[in-house]
Amino acid sequence: MEEYDEFDEYDESVVVWERYNTETGEVEETLTLECYDEDGLEAMETLTDVKKPNGEWQGYRYVYISNGVEKHIRPKDNKYP
Length: 81
What we know:
- By secondary structure, this protein is α+β, with helices and mostly antiparallel strands.
- The protein is 26% helix and 41% strand.
- It is built from two helices and five strands, in the order H-E-E-H-E-E-E.
- The longest helix is centred in the N-terminal third of the chain and has 12 residues, at 2-13.
């Protein structure tokens, strides 16, 4: 039971970001960051798989095209504290 409580506290202070491939429906990579104002920007810069992605933010989701495939950098389960 203690592990669950620790996970709960941890879960509130971090966001798990993921790179999602809309063509395959698979999460290609994840990144865990502490929740603060610039974590979405850090996630986008870290998880995009192209040097200078030409994309846009749609809410908490960064949408871009990589090799003709739309990909999203987004919080896991689309949840942001």
